[in-house]
Amino acid sequence: MTKPNKPKTKDKILSVAIRMFNEAGVQGITSRHIAAEMGISHGNLDYHYHTKEDLILAIYEKMRLEASESYGTRKPHTSSFEHFHRMISELEEFQYRYRFFNLDVLEISRSFPLVNKKIQETLILRKQQSQQLFEEFLRDGFVSFPEEDVMERILHTIRMVITFWLSQLEVISPYKFQQKGEMVRLVWNTILPYLTPAGKEEYERVLDLAASQVASNS
């Protein structure tokens, strides 16, 4: 029987770093902490990731690849609203998987210029992808915007919600709507006023479908 391939040291380092950063934040963990947790020398870790920025950049590349799957992978014969709902649901789960990055994104972007450059490149790409999806909403007759810049403002609002969702949970904790799933609801709420009758019908269908899928998996 063929033995499964063991994870490479570089991959192990990323996994341990993500877990430790999630637990203590970026500033609370050094490369020496990670090496000690793994039972390897600091020199061994440094061989793979020379600086902390190298390590965080590698984590971000992993994050970007996973998020790209949510944005770009579409199941056959699904409507634009179905794809959008699955995408934002996966992005909410993504927030918790890389909790540290979303909580410390401002600090990370200020402290690590190479990471910040990659973040800005990604934001441009995500904006283009989101615009294309909203243009499909329009073609499908699911939404109608009274002014040209309304769609752009909605897209900007959704990006802020996604980027700072975990931060607002900690900062404005006395408010309601703290449970998982609320990010998805809030994103939809920014679009609901602009749904056409066909859009409202499709929205209800998508929510019913998602609920039935959750029930069948539980």
UniProtKB/TrEMBL annotation:
Gene3D superfamilies: Tetracycline Repressor, domain 2. This is TetR/AcrR family transcriptional regulator. Keywords: DNA-binding. The keyword DNA-binding applies. It comes from the Bacteria. Residues 7-67 form the HTH tetR-type domain. Residues 30-49 bind DNA. The keyword Transport does not apply. InterPro entries: Homeodomain-like_sf, HTH-type_Tx_Regulator, HTH_TetR, TetR. It comes from Algoriphagus aestuariicola.
